[in-house]
Specification:
With about 500 residues, the protein is an all-alpha fold. The protein has 2 domains: about 425 residues, Amino acid/polyamine transporter I (Up-down Bundle), CATH 1.20.1740.10; about 60 residues, no CATH class. The protein is built from 19 helices and no strands. The radius of gyration is 22 Å and the shape is globular.
Length: about 500
């Protein structure tokens, strides 16, 4: 693809002779680093153990990464292209669903995105206190009573901060960035250059996973949800498009950052397979990379990673407190959620969404005490809930690409057929991930979408509008209700399913 393939013009279509559309904007390097920071989260520290725990062999893990490389690239470019061809749609990714497929599917997209965001906070909490337990044994596995109390204190403290109008803290963001990347680079360099990587172990892992009896297709399936979890946030990559000095740099930055992140993830995943057998990786507590480093270089490696994870998550949880409260607030502003969610305090903070979101998070935290639910369980559920927003966004982009070719003129220089292929592949990948979520994931997802119907009806009643006026909405409603009923039946009649 040529350099100009992904170029686009400014909002008004004007550029200076050197391509500058925003003289005060940020350059290509800062764009790349910003996008990388948006994508890379805590999941990179748990990659090795999570993929091994699903029974996948090295070959299955590489296959999963290959599929994800294509699929996530298509989703990344989908969000990028939509930001250029539909710049007027500023209500979040759920706006794409609403515009393309009606307000009920738009609502469900917003609902899924919100639940996914708050479940991220729950999974982050489990991982945080799992890391802190290395230094403070009182936290046990990271999901006991002490961890629940600790996580509760953090989420409500952050809610207080956000309610005071503190939605961005520069120092915390800087700490997050450093704590993410420096230890990861040290881990990669240490494993390669200190002789910790054993080619014989790696080759053995390519052929056999922790569960040798597991079919290869099932191995790939188990590894897939891990790959989508670590890429959650890809939709945020286009959020900085308006800040670019040169509009054509946005496409370059998006692709460059994606390649860098994919390379980072694969190096952590594959290098770990050269340190210890997958059967051993599968038994590691999270963050697994800490114990990989311990095996590779000694205790200082585990201390480094656990400290880095703790710092990163303490900051990341603040970011998700903002996201999980802003998402329903914006949806309510667009007329998708109930009006109560639009209420703000004197500081302009969405206090109702803050309280409601934290109450739901608190309920999930309490479940730690009564179930075997872990970090993996909640991130799988979080990744599953975001699949519908991703699917509907990809489907809307494909719809635009095939039915509104004029929207691409002067906005994206790549041929139209290129964008149509990306749209179709994005839809196929999203559907594939639904399969990868597995039966349990789909069961729980169906249950979590059911309560949203009540809010949808409530919101419609507030606006004096009728619900489910067309066949498509009624079909979607029937599917959700039927799936939820089946899910309840399976949960009741299948002991040990959760």
């Amino acid at each position: 693809m040529s350099k100009e393939a992904l170029a686009s013009t400014g909002a008004d279509g004007s550029q200076s002779s050197d391509g500058v559309t925003n003289p005060n904007g940020i350059g290509l390097f800062r764009l790349v680093t910003t996008v990388i920071t948006l994508i890379v989260g805590a999941g990179v520290f748990t990659l090795a153990g999570d993929q091994a725990a699903g029974g996948a062999s090295g070959a299955a893990i590489i296959t999963a990464w290959s599929i994800s490389a294509v699929g996530v690239f298509c989703l990344v470019m989908t969000f990028f292209a939509l930001s250029r061809v539909k710049p007027d749609l500023k209500g979040g990714i759920y706006t794409y669903a609403s515009t393309g497929f009606g307000d009920f599917l738009g609502f469900n997209s917003a609902w899924g995105y919100w639940i996914s965001a708050l479940l991220c906070t729950v999974s982050f909490s489990a991982l945080l206190f799992g890391a802190l337990s290395y230094f403070f044994p009182i936290f046990g596995s990271g999901t006991d009573l002490a961890a629940v109390i600790g996580a509760s204190v953090i989420i409500w403290f952050y809610a207080f901060l956000v309610s005071r109008g503190i939605s961005e803290v520069t120092l915390i963001n800087a700490v997050i960035t450093i704590s993410k990347f420096v230890p990861l680079l040290i881990a990669i360099i240490a494993i390669i250059f200190l002789g910790a990587f054993n080619p014989e172990i790696f080759m053995a892992n390519l052929q056999t996973g922790a569960d040798p009896e597991l079919a290869f297709v099932d191995q790939v399936q188990s590894a897939m949800m891990v790959t989508i979890w670590v890429f959650i946030g890809i939709e945020g990559a286009v959020a900085i498009s308006g800040r670019a000095r040169k509009s054509k740099d946005v496409g370059k930055a998006t692709i460059t950052a994606f390649v860098c992140v994919l390379t980072l993830y694969m190096m952590v995943s594959l290098l770990s397979m050269g340190v210890m057998p997958l059967s051993d990786l599968a038994t590691l507590e999270n963050p697994a990379l800490a114990y990989v480093m311990q095996a590779a270089v000694g205790d200082w490696g585990a201390i480094l990673i656990n400290f880095a994870v703790s710092l990163s998550l303490i900051g990341a949880m603040l970011g998700y407190t903002v996201l999980a409260s802003e998402s329903p607030f914006e949806a309510a502003e667009e007329g998708v959620f109930i009006r109560a969610f639009t209420k703000t305090n004197k500081k302009g903070a969405p206090v109702v969404t803050l309280v409601v979101t934290n109450c739901i998070i608190e309920l999930f935290l309490i479940t730690w005490l009564f179930t075997d639910s872990t970090y993996q369980f909640f991130y799988t559920l979080s990744a599953g809930m975001i699949l519908l927003p991703y699917l509907l966004s990809a489907a809307y982009f494909a719809k635009v690409a095939f039915k509104e070719p004029e929207a691409f003129r002067g906005k994206l220089a790549a041929p139209l057929w290129f964008w149509r292929i990306l749209g179709v592949l994005g839809v196929v990948y999203s559907l594939f991930l639904s399969w990868a979520a597995g039966a349990l994931g789909l069961i729980l997802m169906c249950l979590l979408y059911l309560p949203g119907i009540v809010m949808y009806i409530w919101g419609k009643h507030e606006r004096g509008e009728k619900c489910f006026q067309n066949t498509r909405d009624r079909v979607v409603l029937a599917i959700i209700v039927l799936a939820a009923c089946v899910s309840v039946y399976l949960l009741v009649t299948t002991p040990g399913l959760v």
